[in-house]
Amino acid sequence: MMLKDLAARSASFNMRLHSLQGISMLDWGRMKIPEEDRPALLRQMHRDSVVWLYGYIAALADRKFVDRGDAERMQCELLYLHEKHSSVANS
After folding, report:
1. pTM higher than the cut 0.90
2. How far apart (Å, rounded) are the C-alpha atoms in residues 34 and 79?
3. Which domain of life is it from (predicted)?
């Protein structure tokens, strides 16, 4: 099982995964967030997504809804995505 498999089963997981991947588009005009505050907000949203997704995977493994090995692979994939985003955001 991979992250995309869980995303196909859970709308909230999918939304947060897309946020982490930078796929979801925010309507900045509607949100009325000043342009200078947007990078910090995006970083916070990505951190929040990582924490939520990691916890979701851990809970599934604890309840034995997913295999422990699959959970560890998904958590590694998640951390890779986070590091990939962090290196781009901090460039």
Report:
1. no
2. 29
3. Bacteria
